[in-house]
Amino acid sequence: MNTTEYPTIEHSFALPAATCRRSATAPRSVDEIVVNWHVTEACNYRCRYCYSHWEREPNRLDVIRDEVASLGLIEALWQFFRPDNASNPLRRQLQWSNLRLSLAGGEPMLYARQIARVARHAKALGMRVSMITNGSLLPRIPEELNELARSLDMLGLSIDAVSDSRNRAIGRADRKESTLSLEQLARLVNNLRAAHPGIALKVNTVVNAFNVHDDLRGVIDVLRPDRWKLLRVLPVLNDDLVVSDTDFAAFVARHACLGTRVSVEDNRDMLASYLMVDPQGRFFQNGNGASCGYFYSRPITRDTIERAFHSVPFDACKFASRY
User: Fold this and answer.
1) Are 203 and 263 in contact (CB under 8 A)?
2) pLDDT, tens digit, for every residue of 110-125?
3) Among 94, 133, 144, 286, which is 20 to 30 Å from 112 by CA?
4) Which residues contact 57 (CB under 8 A, 6 or more apart)?
């Protein structure tokens, strides 16, 4: 995937003129700012639509593998995005009461011990903490999961299908072609809720060519998530999993009976609407379509975080519309 350095810019560049003028005098209110830290691109699955591949700086370890660097990155994010930082440039467009650190991958639970340490530190600073995982490793590491859960406000599970054959076709299986059953997931979720009743549950589903005609209402009825996010597959490396407008709309309509728990993100909703940090501690953002690669900042802890933040595009109004 090609990557591009992006020049220092003002973030309002991506917003329609009328919206920008309005936000300059009346910032939109959201409950929280969410920073998504993709801690690793390593994963025990090989999902064919995966976009978690980044250009690496030579001889630089992923931040999660260095305790000092990990905690330094969390401190920098907290100081810049903390709700009482009136000097944050986003304040011209947004007002927020909380900061949430969302830990993602790859598969973050490949670094279970380090993830628990990061979550604990972020929580102590005052952040909310969430994590998105494929769930496959969780039954194998109950002690690490229990330690992590003490600091989690929300657990996100990535679920695209129920049948083993469908999951294997998508790439949601490990090297031994093992998959995680709905029964295993339900048991894990029930145990987690019993031990940590304050944790919210989210399910993410990437709607793609293999599952676009499926009915997943039974999955949602069993897991009872607080939120179910439907994301339309992005054409990252090729177009073989892309779904048509008609088929995507039909998938959404088929599950509309589940009500307000369901949120939908089409391709255009995702571009420039996430605050994202890559495994090497850089802000990054999609180009004009994921196939155009990523824009990267300098590593956050090597530069001022404000300058790093200003060097990649971010659409504050699109972010606010998702919450």
Assistant:
1) no
2) 999 999 999 999 999 9
3) 286
4) 280, 299
Q: How far apart are CA 322 and CA 318, in angstroms?
A: 7
CATH number of 3-321: 3.20.20.70
In tens, the pLDDT along 202-251 reads 999 999 999 999 999 999 999 999 999 999 998 765 578 999 999 999 99
| Reported pTM | 0.89
From residue 321, alpha-carbon distances to 33, 154, 263, 276 in Å are: 12, 20, 11, 17
3-class DSSP state for residue 4? strand
Distance set, CA 165 to CA 84, 180, 209, 216, 256 (Å): 49, 12, 14, 15, 26
Residue 192, SS3? helix
Instruction: Delimit the domains of the chain by residue range.
Output: 3-321
Mean pLDDT of the chain: 88
Residue 132 DSSP one-character state: E
- Any residues with CB less than 8 A from the CB of 226 and at least 6 apart, and which? 154, 200, 201, 202, 261
Report phi then psi at 12, rounded to 5.
-70, -5
- Note the pLDDT tens digit of each residue in 267-319: 777 778 899 999 999 999 876 544 457 889 999 998 899 999 999 999 998 89
Question: What phi, psi does 230 have (nearest 5°)?
Answer: -105, 120
